[in-house]
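User: What would this chain look like folded?
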Amino acid sequence: MKFVTKLFPEITIKTRPVRKLMVKSLAQNMRNVLRRICPEVVVRNDWDSIIVRTPETTTEPVNQAVAAALECIPGIAQVSSVLQFELGDFDQILSDTESVWGQELAGKTFCVRVKRNGNHDFTSVELERYVGGGLNQRTEAAGVRLKDPDVVVKLEIKHDRLFVVQQQRPGLGGYPLGTQEEVMTLMSGGFDSTVAAHQMIRRGVKSHFLFFNLGGSAHENGVKEVSYYLWKKYGSSHRVLFVSVPFESVVEVILTRVPDRYMGVVLKRMMMRAAQSIATDLGIPAVVTGEALAQVSSQTLPNLSHIDEVTDLLVLRPLIVTGKPDIIDQARAIGTATYAEKMPEFCGVISRKPNAACKRADVQAAEADFDWAVLDEAIANATRESIETLTWNSQDDLSMGINTVSDTNQAVVIDVRHPTEADDAPLPITDATVMQIPFYSLNRKFAELDQDQQYLLYCDKGVMSKLHAMHLQDAGFTNVGVYSPDR
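Assistant: Here's the prediction, encoded as C-alpha cells.
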C-alpha cells in the first residue's frame, strides 16, 4: 500500500534550506518508527509530501499499524492511504475505483477529483465526469454534488499507474522531532505535565523526562508508565532518558523546617535547583513544566518568579494560559487522561494555608534553615534509564497486594497524615492504639518499630496510605496494611 503524508503547513513556508533539512529529518524519523512495524517499508522524499510504500504482500493489520503510526509522528499534517492499480481504460478505472469506494458511497453525495502526472489522451475533467457518472449508476449513492459533497473520491494518475485515495486522516502536525533543541520535562504523571510534554514533542522538541519521587515505587511506576506511553506513541523516533530523583527526604525537611505558607513555593524551588543540576550535567539548556497561571497558589506570577530565580536555565511553560478543562480535554485526546486520573497530586499534600503572593525576602528566610546536604544527596542518588529499557511492573495498581480492612483487629493504626490534619480531625478509634507518623517520616521510622506487631496505615482518602504501604512492602516489610473505616 502507498501512503501520502502532507507536511505541516509551517514547514512549507520555511526558507528552502530549512525546509529541506526539516523534510529530511521527518523522513528519517518516519523510517525509524515504521521499520519496527514493517522492516521493508520504503520512505521517499517529495517536495510537498513524503511517500511511504509497504510491499504488496503486507497484511492489512500491518498496513493499519503503519497508518496509525504515521498519524502520531510530529511534522505530518495529513495521512492518505492509497491503493495502486495499473492504469487501464475508463471502464477499468471505474471498476478499480468502485472496488474501493462502492460500499462507502451508499446514501451519500459525492464528487470525483482527479490529479494527473504524465502524458495521457484524456483530460482530468473527462475522467472525473466518466467515473462520477459510473459510480452514481452502479452504487447506492445519494447523487453527485460538486460543492460540499459528503465524500470526495480522489484519484491520482502518474504515468501508467492509478492511485485511488482510500482514506484521509489528520496527522499530528508540528515540526519533525529533533529539529529543535532538547529539553528536560518535569513529569508528575498528572494531566498538566503529560499535556505539556506532548506539546513539546509535537513542536519538534526532543524531551527527556524528569520525575521527583514523593510516593515510593508505586508512584514511580505510574509516572514511568505514562512517560513510556507518550514516548512510544509520539516520540519513539528518538531515544530519551527517564530520570528519577528520590525527593521524599527533601519533602520531610520542608515539612519540618519551612513555615506552612511557603512550603509549596520552596518545594518547587528545590525541584528547579535539582532540575538545573541534572539538566546541566546532561547538556540540556531548558526545562519544561506543566504549570498554568493561577491554577494553584504556587503558580501565581509572583511565586513563579520566585521559583524561576533559582535557575539559570530557560523555563518553558506551554500551558501557562490554558484552563484546566481544556488541559483535561487535551489529555483525553492524546490518551494520557486514563493515567492521570489514577495519579495522586503529591505536591498539594504539603500545601498548608499557602501564600499566593510570597515576598522574595520571606521565601529566602523560609529556606534559611533548610539542610542543603539532603538536596545534594537526592540529586546524587538520581537514577537515569533509557526510556526504551525502563524497568517497572506495568501491572502495578495502588491496591494490588495491599490488605485493606475496616476492622483494626488488634493492629496498631499509624496515622500518616500531616500533623496539622491529624490535629484538626483526630482519628476516632477506641479499640486500637493510634500512632502519628507523618508520611514523609514513615519510611525512615517504620524500621524502628516492633516488627512483631501488625500495622495499618491511615489517611483521609486512602491514597497516601496505600502508596506507602506498597513502598514498605517493596522494602521487605510484610506486617503492614491499610485501615479504611468506610470499606
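The chain is about 40% helix and 20% strand. If you want, I can go into more detail on any region.
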